[in-house]
Write a structure and sequence with these properties.
The complex is a heterotrimer of chains A (244), B (309) and C (230). With 244 residues, chain A is mainly α. Helix content of chain A is 77%, strand content 0%. Chain A is built from eleven helices and no strands. With 230 residues, chain C is mainly α. In chain C, helix 2 (8-42) packs across helix 5 and helix 2 (8-42) runs antiparallel to helix 7 (121-152). The chains are: A mainly alpha (244), B alpha/beta (309), C mainly alpha (230). Chains B and C meet through helix 1 and helix 3 of B and helix 2, helix 7, helix 8 and helix 9 of C.
Chain lengths: 244, 309, 230
């Protein structure tokens, strides 16, 4: 058995590119699942993270909470929720959101914390209110690190939705479980290749966004200082967990 | 340099810890790390499919052999047929409980055998060299198509051949492999001319499949005939006049290298005692309120049948 | 409660197996990533390539990797090595990036000073770079530990037993308690491993506890990593 060439044949077979079980449809499902997860997770995580970063309060709790969430085995949470709540999109969505929260929260508070104290003091001294400082100074400056957190969460979510297809869901994980059930290695491998490509493309998109959101003044100001700060710009992509 | 020596001693401690953990985990019934290498002449590794009944029967085989002095270990919940038969053929496992009809269709998709005797007779030719089945039991557990009572009355459906006249789209709740099975989606199409889509619920006709049938997520559900869920929920099991679902007697399939007179007599004694009613009551213990472990259920059955040495 | 008592033996055994499967990837992740990360950092040209490769490895979903390994390295389909090797690959993928960042964060002035007082590259690595990169490496390996322990359970889908066995069986028989036992067991292992790693960190790097007396060199740049690792 030549698994890899079978997988490429599977990928090139036009019948796998049409219909509700086809690669475009499955990829779209996977993307929609991922986006919905990220949006819901951001709505929950970013206010928490920004509040922690802005006020400096509750950091210990946030760290503990994120750490506890990271230790949750996603497969177990998924099947527990499905056993409790039944089938449908809800249980896996909750499990995936739980998975996405830690990097998002960490990205948000680390981003705000990394903003130079002097800059904030300057903003306050010209009369900005707390909200203005948050939205006009801290948030723009923190954005690259926040996006880094989203990027890291996105990779995990893409990978882990494939595991979630243990439940009757669409998405690219279907190929992996259905292929495993009947030991169709071509389908399994082909489906995996699509997942990998999707993850790499998403990662690339976020890498570009991360660069674009750096405020122009910061780019200029950083030039002299770039070596020392280098590791900061990588935050959020490093030290993140795989989960798929 | 102090750091270096600290690192070395810490690494040594970690390695020792790992060894200790590995040591602790050997010799237990679920361990898989220590058994797979000793495959020729060593312990018999019993595998099971991804549903509770298969694991219970695998436990029965394991415990019966062990009490007769045969070295065994068990690897439960491997996956669907294709996965565990692959494990059998690459030597990861040596013995697995099977269902005669599905096993025959796996190796001979075009078989015309339907009755227990015909299927069993055809099996010995169909199995690959080096593997054999021992005596089959009277116990049978088939896949079956089930609908709710309300659906059956509304559309006047009691048989798979009635489905053709149902006007709404049909979805079947079953494991993913159902998409490829001769008695699954393809059989429904070729024998009855019915087009149905699969909702792949990987609980082998378990609680979620039942729930999906009840709440109308699926119109048809593949539930194994030894599950009490059919009776408890008043589901209607559809007749199968074209016999796409053939005889499914429980029997052991085994690597011939592992067959000794003792192994043969122990497993044949188990098959001789196992009945369909036993399967129903054992499934009840697993999925009912008791949620007993497979090992416990197997133990109870073996002592009830006086099969422990 | 009865169920817990009747199945205590199996719960304990699977917990040990689960822990045993988690140890090798964590060790491999640390041992391989330190030299790779150091080299990637030392020879800047290779850094992009190395990070791109680990980026791709990181994007491979775990389940298919478990499944294809037998056809690549010739293991048997149910061999726990398939899970251990896959998770080791992820561990390296996460840790190489962390290690590379950790070494990059070591102040060049400090390295030059070490060279100036006559340290060889080898000695400078052991006495200066590694200790200064240590806190970041530790935070990285703690992340690897948690993620490895969580992912081991996915192996149960392909018949490699671990606490994940309880997830699948609990799901098949509709028994939330059994799934819960698997989840709690996984968290307990993660917490125990984290305490062990933190303890090793204290033993190996006692100075990290006298933070206030240190210069900013080692501390400033580790902060974001620690945050991320939290």
């Amino acid at each position: 058995m030549n698994g890899w060439s079978d997988a490429f044949n599977w990928l090139l077979d036009p019948t796998n590119w049409s219909g509700p079980g086809g690669i475009p449809a499955r990829t779209e499902e996977h993307l929609v699942y991922t986006l919905v997860t990220l949006v819901v997770a951001c709505i929950i995580a970013l206010p928490i993270g920004l509040a922690v970063g802005h006020t400096g309060k509750g950091r210990g709790v946030a760290v503990q909470f994120s750490g506890a969430l990271r230790a949750l085995p996603t497969l177990g949470v998924l099947l527990l929720l499905a056993t409790w709540l039944g089938l449908g999109f809800g249980p896996p969505l909750v499990a995936m959101v739980l998975l996405a929260l830690p990097p998002l929260i960490a990205g948000a508070y680390a981003g705000v914390e990394a903003v130079d104290r002097q800059t904030i003091d300057a903003a306050r001294s010209i009369g900005m209110t707390g909200w203005q400082v948050l939205f006009k100074v801290e948030l723009p400056l923190a954005l690259p690190i926040i996006i880094g957190g989203v990027r890291s969460a996105c990779l995990q979510v893409i990978a882990t939705w494939t595991v979630a297809a243990y439940l009757p869901l669409g998405g690219l994980g279907r190929y992996i479980y259905d292929g495993y059930a009947v030991q169709n290695y071509a389908e399994m491998l082909g489906g995996s290749i699509v997942v990998i490509i999707l993850a790499l493309v998403a990662d690339g998109v976020f890498a570009i966004v991360q660069r674009l959101v750096v405020p122009r003044g910061v780019v200029l100001g950083r030039a002299s200082d770039v070596r020392v700060r280098q590791s900061r710009s990588l935050v959020g992509t490093s030290g993140s967990t795989t989960a798929g | 340099m102090a750091l270096k020596s600290r690192i070395i001693s810490a690494a040594a401690a970690a390695a020792l810890g790992a060894l200790a953990l590995a040591g602790c985990s050997s010799g237990n019934p679920l361990d898989s790390s220590t058994t797979s290498s000793a495959n020729s002449g060593g312990a018999i590794v019993v595998g099971s499919a991804n549903f509770p009944e298969s694991e219970i029967i695998a436990q029965i085989y394991t415990q019966a052999l062990a009490s007769n002095g045969v070295k065994t270990s068990i690897k439960p919940n491997i996956g669907a047929r294709e996965a565990y038969l692959k494990a059998l053929q690459d030597g990861s496992i040596d013995l697995v409980p099977e269902y005669s009809g599905s096993l025959l269709q796996y190796y001979d998709a075009k078989t015309t055998a339907q009755s227990s005797t015909d299927v069993y007779a055809a099996l010995s030719d169909a199995l690959p060299k080096g593997y054999q089945v021992l005596n089959q039991s009277k116990a049978e557990d088939k896949d079956s198509y089930n609908v709710t009572k309300a659906f059956s009355e509304k559309y006047n459906v009691t048989s798979l051949s009635d489905l053709k006249s149902v006007s709404i789209p049909l979805t079947v709740g079953a494991n993913p492999e159902f998409a490829d099975r001769p008695y699954g989606i393809p059989g429904l199409k070729s024998a009855y001319g019915v087009t149905a889509t699969l909702d792949p619920i990987s609980d082998s006709g378990g609680p979620l499949t039942v729930k999906a049938l009840q709440d109308g997520t699926v119109q048809l559900a593949d539930i194994y005939t030894t599950s009490s869920a059919i009776k408890d929920n008043g589901f209607v099991t559809l007749k199968d006049p074209k016999n796409i679902i053939i005889a499914e007697n429980v029997l052991p399939v085994i690597n011939s290298k592992k067959v000794t007179d003792k192994v043969k007599s122990v497993l044949n004694a188990v098959s001789g005692a196992l009945t369909t009613d036993d399967l129903v009551s054992m499934n009840d213990k697993a999925s009912g309120s008791a949620k007993e472990s497979a090992a416990q259920i197997a133990k109870e059955w073996l002592s009830e049948k006086n099969l422990f040495q | 409660m009865n169920w817990l008592i009747e199945n205590a033996g199996q719960i304990w055994q699977l917990t040990l197996i689960h822990a045993g499967l988690s140890v090798p990837p964590i060790i491999v992740g640390l041992v391989l990533s330190v030299p790779i990360g150091w080299l990637a950092n030392r020879y800047r040209a290779s850094r992009g390539t190395v990070l791109a490769i680990v980026g791709i490895l990181y994007a491979v979903p775990s389940l298919p990797l478990f499944l294809v390994l037998p056809s690549i390295i010739g293991t048997k389909v149910l061999d726990p090595a398939n899970v251990v090797i896959s998770l080791s690959i992820y561990a390296v993928a996460i840790m190489v990036r962390t290690a590379s960042d950790a070494f990059a964060a070591v102040d060049v002035d400090v390295l030059l000073a070490a060279t100036a007082v006559g340290f060889s590259t080898w000695r400078r690595f052991w006495s200066v770079e590694l200790p200064l990169a240590g806190p970041v490496l530790l935070s990285g390996i703690r992340v690897v530990s948690v993620s490895t322990i969580s992912l081991v359970s996915v192996g149960s889908v392909i018949g490699v037993p671990s606490l994940g066995y309880f997830f699948l069986r609990g799901f098949q028989v509709g028994f939330p308690l059994e799934i819960g036992v698997g989840i709690v067991g996984t968290i307990v292992i993660a917490v125990v491993f984290d305490l062990i790693l933190a303890g090793l960190g204290r033993v190996l790097m006692p100075w990290t506890h006298r933070r206030s007396r240190r210069t900013r060199v080692a501390i400033r740049d580790e902060t974001p990593e620690l945050v991320e690792a939290a």
